[in-house]
Amino acid sequence: MTVREFLVFRLAGPMAAFGKIAVGEQRDIWGEPSKSGVLGLVAGAMGLTRDAAAAHSALETGLGFAVRIDAHGHALRDYHTAQAPKSRKDRRWRTRRDELADRDDLNTVLSERLYRLEARATVALWRKAEPGPDLAALKGALERPNFIPYLGRKSCPLGEPPRPEVVAASTLMAAFDAYDAGCGPADAQVSSLVAPGRRPDPAAERPVWFEMAAGLTDEDAQTDLVRERRDAPRDRVARRFADRREGRLMWRRDLLQGIVA
After folding, report:
1. Residue from 184, 185, 34, 228 nearest 116 by CA
2. What is the bridge-based pairing of β-strands 63-71 and 206-211?
3. Residue 238: which residues within 8 A CB-CB, separation 6 or more?
4. Which of 95, 111, 208, 261 would you call most buried, defined as having the most Cβ atoms within 10 angstroms of its Cβ?
5. For residues 85 and 103, is the Cβ–Cβ distance under 8 A?
6. How far is CA 217 from CA 1, 77, 128, in A?
7. Is the pTM of this model over 0.70?
């Protein structure tokens, strides 16, 4: 088997919201981190702004993406209203109350946004072909980010450092195992914010969703489920995305350790 390098890191926080396509008043979320969201986090750590189109494209086309779900967390529904009266160029208000007073054009918008609480995931990135993005440089950026990283929305900061590591492995599953061996299993480093009853079960199977046709030919052949996901970034400024195919594998530590042993 060919040995390749993987950049592996963890994403965990009290709240996360990797959104699906946002239309109208409903702002739904994925059950796991999206490629567009994770690459956006990495790009921010590198100091890239949204209009750095070539650099964003290089990350998207040059990197494969996989995510292992260590804790699904639980859903939170945020229902709220927003009011934005039509502005009057010749008026200035001292307070928000003054602006809203005696107005009949409040343009009230009702919206519903979903979040996931106490969710945890381990992410793996790899070069689809050589040369590609420098994984060591990406690791350094995640350790000392230029822009504050967040989990999908700015109101969702990380609850702990991502602990990025570059590991060499012949398979994706072996890369996760090597990372756990170096940084400790995900369930052994659960944040104190997670309630004991919701902490990951060390013996439980965990789904791994990985990008297909991204260089992992063995994994492509082993997947037990394939889906399409619209999270391949195409234009960060206009927020345009394209479909990509993901395959699923099931990870379990005792099985993998038995293979490694």
Report:
1. 34
2. antiparallel
3. none
4. 208
5. yes
6. 11, 39, 11
7. yes
- pLDDT tens digits along 197-247: 556 566 678 999 999 999 999 999 999 899 999 888 888 888 888 999 999
Q: Taking the chain, what is the end-to-end CA distance rounded to the nearest angstrom?
A: 17
Query: Among residues 218, 215, 246, which one has the least CA distance to residue 232?
Result: 246
Helix (H) or strand (E) segment spanning residue 9: strand 4-16
Cα 121 to Cα 34: distance, rounded to the nearest angstrom: 11
Query: What DSSP string describes 43-61?
Result: HHHHT--TT-HHHHHHHHH
Radius of gyration from C-alpha coordinates of the chain = 21
Residues with Cβ < 8 Å from 84, sequence gap 6 or more? 106, 107, 109
Question: In the chain, which residues have pLDDT < 50?
Answer: 256-261
Quickly list DSSP for 189-236: G--TTS-GGGSPPTTS-EEEEEETTSS-HHHHHH-SEEEEEEEEEEET
Task: Quote the CA–CA distance of 162 and 78 in Å, as a whole number.
Answer: 26
**Tokens read off for 140:** 């350094």
Checking DSSP bridges between strand 109-127 and strand 26-27, what pairing results, if any?
A: parallel
DSSP codes of every residue in 63-93: EEEEEEEEE--EEEEEEEEE--PPP-TT---
C-alpha distances (whole Å) from 68 to each of 8, 78, 125, 230, 248 are 10, 26, 12, 18, 10
